Every structure is written in structure tokens, then in C-alpha cells.
Amino acid sequence: MADVAERAGVSTSTVSRTLRGLSTVSPEVRARVEQAARELNFAVSRQAASLVTGRTGNVAVLVPTLQSWFMGTALSSLAPLLRAAGMELNVYVIPDLAERTSFFERLPARRNADALLVFCFDLTDEETASLDNLGMPVVYVSQHVEGRPSIYVDDVAGALHGTRHLLNLGHRRIAFVQTIGASGFSFSSNERLIGYQQALTEAGLPLDDDLVVATEPGDKRGAAEAIGRLLSLREPPTAVFAEQDEVAVAAIWTLRKTQIPVPERVSVLGFDDQPIADWFDLSTVAQSPADIGREAGELALCLINDPDADHKRHIVLPTHVIPRATTAPPPQEEREG
Amino acid sequence: MADVAERAGVSTSTVSRTLRGLSTVSPEVRARVEQAARELNFAVSRQAASLVTGRTGNVAVLVPTLQSWFMGTALSSLAPLLRAAGMELNVYVIPDLAERTSFFERLPARRNADALLVFCFDLTDEETASLDNLGMPVVYVSQHVEGRPSIYVDDVAGALHGTRHLLNLGHRRIAFVQTIGASGFSFSSNERLIGYQQALTEAGLPLDDDLVVATEPGDKRGAAEAIGRLLSLREPPTAVFAEQDEVAVAAIWTLRKTQIPVPERVSVLGFDDQPIADWFDLSTVAQSPADIGREAGELALCLINDPDADHKRHIVLPTHVIPRATTAPPPQEEREG
DNA sequence: GCAGTTCGTGACAGCGTTTTCATGCACCGT
DNA sequence: ACGGTGCATGAAAACGCTGTCACGAACTGC
Description:
The first copy, chain A, is α/β, with parallel strands linked by helices.
């Protein structure tokens, strides 16, 4: 910066003012400085600047994985937003318990970011508390944390509406396939189950535990087993509501392999509206991770500028039922029976 | 840090030495300092440290998108590696041309990272040159840049082996489905085509332009059109080699919808070995983005520690043909004809 | 016992910015 | 013409750390 100052024949103060766009610089000096900076290929050091301003210009993001549609999409909408605000995006990937404890022990984001976005974690109270002491605004994304700014979709309502869609088609035996993931990472599992149960109750149907099965995402074998359990019930379901599209697709795969036509014999409904849902013409309950990412980014930027702002509210985003080709009325005999 | 020094009854120099693990600190003093640091919940400011050391502790990563299996997997293996080395991961997402020009104009990573990993970009000479002047080691990942450290899989060999697999099964009419993506982002498209052509030539077969079609990934309609073009040829192919698993799956989908059994009537071979390939029992040519990410991270760390090291070499990773259930010998009449 | 070494420690000068404060200058109204 | 205002600029003090250098103490070998 001293070089730029010398070349432009001004002091470093003026260079600093110019480069930050402060208005108290005369036009001709500004031009000279900008020219000099360009010629010298100069860029201010964020480190040095942050040392005195106390702001790092970084936004930290804590994610359980990057290998998922949700994270990819959310971050892809978050990143340009931060970039436009002149912020850097710092990613912490915490795939397993070891990394997790190490993260919360060392808290590498401390003093190294102006805000932290925590994606999809089921945090313990202790962990939440340690983040409270981080000295920066923390936004909880895709999860519900009492008393802290949180952003999430209304999973209960989504599952409620999805189940109603199946009920309205005439289904009475509706199964729910839960997704059990790596422990400690919340994928809104319970809320979706609750929505499903609410819909059934609302329709005056009993809750049958046999109709709720679980599997892991990406586990073909597990999905087959779960479907197998449903197919071997005394009174098998005519519709399957899977908590995640991937599992729904696996279910369709299994069913069709066994010559059970979807949706003629069994309807399948997913949740998420991943691209894969479109490929398979899968009826699903859509959520928008892009919206989540954007909202989270905007909230974070707000909180950085005004940490005491009244943003401790929860932002709840909507879901939408998207009927495609895998949901249909149940087969005749079932409807009449 | 002054607080810690005071509490431990030592100077800041000693605190700094202790916290950096230098050996010239007596055990009892070390214990006192560590205790004090813990009690005060102290963490050194990377910004301040980097100001004097000249190292930022950041590794910047330039990616075209995060919404892809490849990026997600590569970064997921890269991240823990950097974390273990005490480095932060800084992500720049450049989804479109506007962001791209803005990135290369402002080069936000300048002075803000110790190394840059550029993923999957087809850079212009001008862009490469501007990265050369960045003052930090730049590693090109999943692309081939002359004279700079690059890491990529041997796409030519992969496609060659994949095509040979089809040839060995008895296929003689083998189509290739190219993927045309967002312009300027290299997905090794050409190299895979070259490998395919090499295999045909090697087998003494002519190159038929009609057998090479193109589509966009994720575009069901486009995939259908591409397959349609192949099916309406005078002599349609008995095997389809798609440059990406997603497209291969779309092809299978289209074929089966038209009652053309895969692999009985038409074999389909993919490339990448994404999780989706496993679900669909898709035969494919596997590459390992996890390995790529790891190699890239290790190389970057090497170059950071010793920028002049002899690492200007290219690291070429292997591919593996994984036969699953979508490749089989061509139907009888074809083989005998 | 004395010079020479080694070892642990502290004082202090930077690192490259921002920011405060002071300064000089032009401009205003009277 | 003169003091007051406002504006563009510069000098210099932080910011929080690291690294160099110097210093004293505790050793070593003769």
C-alpha cells in the first residue's frame, strides 16, 4: 500500500480511503490512486485490515457433508450472495464424530469469521452453548434451535400435506419410510413423521406401527428390506411415503423389480424434490434449499452488521406438494374393500 | 494474548512460543500458559499471525458448482486433510460467466490464501496467466494445464477400456453420448471421446459420426432426443457409451420406457461411478474424486511448504471398468449378422 | 573457579492496514 | 479583511501477533 501511495504521490491514509470508497477523497486524487493501484496490481490485505477493524470478512459454514444435493444447492445459492457482500466463504466439513468433537474442542472458526452458519446438525445443549460463546452471530440452518436464529422448512406441514394428497387419492393404508442417517445429523426426520401421523389422525385413521419402517439413504439392500417388510404385512399398504426422494426412488426400483407396478398397484411419494425426482417422475413434497441458503446468507449478513438486531426469530419456509407420475388412486378392490 | 501472558505471569513471547508448540519452553511454564489460555478461552488470531508470518492459513478452492457428485466428493476428501494440516478451506463458487469474469478481475483470493486449487475449469490462456501472477502455488484439478501442477484421471484410457469392454462383448455398433455442459467448464469431454475413438480404430472399426450424439446432463428431453436419433439410424447401435452416469441412466430410462430391454437389446455403459450407477446396476467406468481431492490437497500442502519443489509434474489417476447389469453381449441376430 | 555454552525468557520492532487527530487550505458571511 | 466552517489530506497510533536479539542463569570443561 505504501508503494501505491508513493506512486500516486499521496499518503497511505488517502490510499486506504480511496480503496474503501470513502467519499472524502477528491476526484483527481481518487483517479490517481486507482490508476496506481491498478498498475501495481495491488490488493489490500484482509488480514491487516481485519486486525484493526476487528472484522475478518469471513463467513464460516459448518456442514455434515458436501456430498448431498441439499448442501450443494444451499451453498451454491449462499456463495454468490456472500461474494456480492465482499465476504469469503469458509467451509468446515464435519463428516464423523471424531471431526465433530475436534471441531467443538478447538473451535477453529473462533476469531476467524464474522458469523457462523450451522447446517443440519442435531447439536447437544453443550455444543450449542459453546457456539454461544463464540463471539459471533450463529445462524442455525435446517434445524430448529430454541432462542437462536434458525431457518428451516416446515417439515411437519410438508409431510401433513403430502399424506393428505395420498388420502385424497383414496389411500387408507399408507406406509412411511423413515431415513436414519449418521447419528447426530438432523434431517428433520421426526418432524416429517409427525406430519404424517397428524394427517392420519385428522382423517380418523389409526396409527399402525407396522406401517412405519426405516432405512439408510443410499442403501439398496436396506431399502429392499424395508419394502419387503411392508409387502409381507397381513394388509400391505397401497401407498408409500418416503422421507427422502432417494429412498422413494429405491422403493420404486424395488417394487418394479418385483413386478409391482407403480403407481397402479402402489403409489410412492417422496420428499425434497431433488433432480432425481424429476427424472423418475416421482411425486414429491418439494423444499427449496436454494431459498434456505439465501435466507440464511441474508440473515447472517444482517446479524453481522447489527448483532443486536431483532433477528432472533425463526424463519420458516414453505413446502409444496408436486404430483407427478408415481401417485394415483389405489387399485379398485382396495378402494372398495 | 496479553491477558493470557499476565495470568500466567510470563511475557507474550512465551505465550506465543507455547501455543505454537515450540520446544524452547520449560514444562512448568508451558503448563501454566496452557492453563491460562484454557481458562480465558483464548485462541490466537490468524489474522494477526498471518500479518507477520506472511501465511494466511487458508487454501482457496475455485469450483464451477457445488451441486455435483464430483465436487461434493472431492471436497469432502480434501477438507479433512486441510483441517488436519491446520488450514482453512475457502470456497469460491463460479457458476456463470458473470461471476467468472468478476473473479478474474478482482482475484479475491489474492493475498488471502496460501494456495489455490482450480477445479474443472477450461481456462483461457489469459486466465491461467493471471493465476500465475497470484503469488501462490496454483494446482489444477481435473484438468490438464501445460507446465503447471495438474491432477486428473486418465479419461482417454478410461474411455478406451470402457469401449474395449463393449467390443469384447461382441458389440460392433457402439454409440457415444457426449455431455455438453455450461460453456467453459471442462468435464474432460473430449478426452473421453478420443478414448472411445481409439478403441474403435484399434479394433479396425470405422468412426461413424452418426453414432456420436450430445446432450446436457439432467436434461431428460435432451437425452430422449439423443437416444431417439440413435434409434432412428439405418443401423442402430447395440451399445451406448455415455460420458456421464447421469446421462447413461437417462438413456436407460428412455430405452426401457420404449420397451427396449437393457441390456438384452441395447447395452449401456456409463462413466464416473456415481452412487446412482450402483442403484441402477449400471456398468460404468469408475473414477475416484475422493482420490483426486486427496492428491490435490497433498500436493497443495507440499507446494505451500516448498513452492519451488519439483512438483510441476502432472499426477494422473487411473480409472476402472466396473461391469454391472447394463452391459451384455448384443442380441443374437446382430452378432451373427 | 573461570571462560564458554546452552537454555529459557523478556523487550521490542515490525507486519499492513484503519482510524483518530491535527493541519492547511479554500470558501463563506459580515 | 477577518474569524469561522468545512473539506481534503497527512502523521501517527493502534490492532495482535511473531521473530530477532539480548540477557541472565545454569551448566560445561579445563
